[in-house]
Input
Amino acid sequence: MVSKIHLNGPNDSIVDILQGKERIVSYPGTSQFNGRGISACGLAAMNFARILSDLIYIHGQNRMLDLLRVITSKEVIQDIISICSGWSGDLHLDVEDIQQIPLFEKSLKHVSTRFGPPKARHFRHTLEYMQTLNSSATVIITRPPEIIACTLIKGSETDVFVIFDSHPRTSYPAGAGIILNTSIDQAVSRLVSILPAADSNLLSLSGLQWQAQLLNHVSGHIFVSNGPPADMRGMQHTVVESSLAVLRLRAEVAGLTQKNERLAKENETLEGEVQRLDDALSVERKKVVSLRAPSKIVQGSSAQHFTSLPLPSRLSNGIAGPSQLAPLDSSSSSDKMTNNGRGRDAGAWSSPYDTVKEDIGHEWGLDSPSSAVALKLQQSFDVEDLQLRDQMRTLAALLPHSFSCVICMEEQPVDNSVDLKCNHSICRTCIRGHICSKIEEHRFPVLCPVCMTEKDNRQPAVISGLLVQQIGVDERQYAIWEEMELSQLSVLLHCHKCQRSVPVDRQEHDESRMLVCPLPDCNHIWCKACQQTFIIGGPPHSCDGTSELDHLMKQRGWKYCPNCKTPVQRDGGCSHMTCISPGCNTHFCYVCGKNIVRSALRSDIQNAVTAHYRACKLFDYLEV
Output
């Protein structure tokens, strides 16, 4: 049996706890989220352990009833939660870091740490270990990102388990909850319901393995009191502020450390990419050098036979380097170039190899095959140089680009992004998690999660069915998606006669006043408003039954009271009828239906009845 207190707090019925009943105490406005401490559940749990250890020392084990009433008072719960308002960071704090600040280091002593899955067996072993200790103890249970506390209060006659949860739950939606009971089975069951094990289907989702493993493990730090509470009431506020300041500085250091590690990994990745490009460039340079070797051999042999003869001007190669040909004599070179230039058009200057070939073949008498080979090699080098440059530009364009996901803030390849009409950069893992959660909640249409956070965005992007297919949801979720898509254009119509359902056009359904079963073997027709069956060939339908009643009265010959319209049926006697409706006082004729008089005075009634039935039948006589 579970009792709940949400508004007025504990009363004398708290004695039921010592009789084996469970009690939940919660006050509106005491959640950790009422202040700025959106990630301060660890602070609240540790503060609960500190304050509870002080209260246990003050009240002792023999005054268990008074101790429980103090623990469940609104002032104590507000005192526990008040520490959350001093923490404005969004970094979730570890229990080890919180325990090292002066406020908790002096008052609590760490005894043991236990790890395991969030299952009943692990929680039972932890609570049984706490029962073996010589004093009351508190375990701080962490399953990222949630932290709760459970205290075992040792009493002279019975032990009491007190569970503290700073998060609003279904059992205590308005604020933090304190659950008290004397049964270890009830305490274990409550811990399992607060921190359930991760679903096996979640563990199988791609990209969520390590997050799911975190949800499937808990850590329990067990603390006992470090001695009697110090007399520091006047300094308590100062100590709390200084402790929070120390904790904030440590959190900032941890945040900077994480950022530094992330930047170091990014730098290492970029260095590897640079090294890969350098290696590729070295390979291409080796290819060019290997192609230069035949040219040097040919040019070297020519130089051995004609060392005394000057050669034309140098030919430059962008990659292979300058040619080995010696420079020409300046005067002969200029004359030759002038003579050869006469009679040529401007396009002829684009091929200097012809000029060099003529100079070598006619003026110096070089072997024609050797010079032709050298010039062809030079031309091939230039062509290959252009090809290599094009390849370098192509490789640079094919390098994998990255983007920063606006949800998880991680750098990822562009191939892992999704195309949305709003052009928000979201990775496939984040958009898959968003879509799957909306499918499980049966929310449609599914909008871009970033657009939903923008206050001035009146036209958020809508997730398309094609994107749902591309991100890879399972068959069950896709069946739900198709059903939600179909619901935009159709309505599931259920026939009460044949007990079957079939989708019909939504627009036609909205415009119709009566509904017809579309199945060929069923002719059931009913009213959409009141769900009553239409009788074919019967009276006109009315949801309140007035049309059917009027048809029945005309069919049976019944009459309405001409004043208040109350239906009247004569079962015998004369035609003088008196309305039975209280306060109506109407007298009318059952034969013609006309009003005789409306009065409660006997004389008025007699005179009016006598005057009316001079022209109308008072009795129905049988004709003989």
Q: What stands out?
A: The two ends are 82 Å apart (CA to CA).
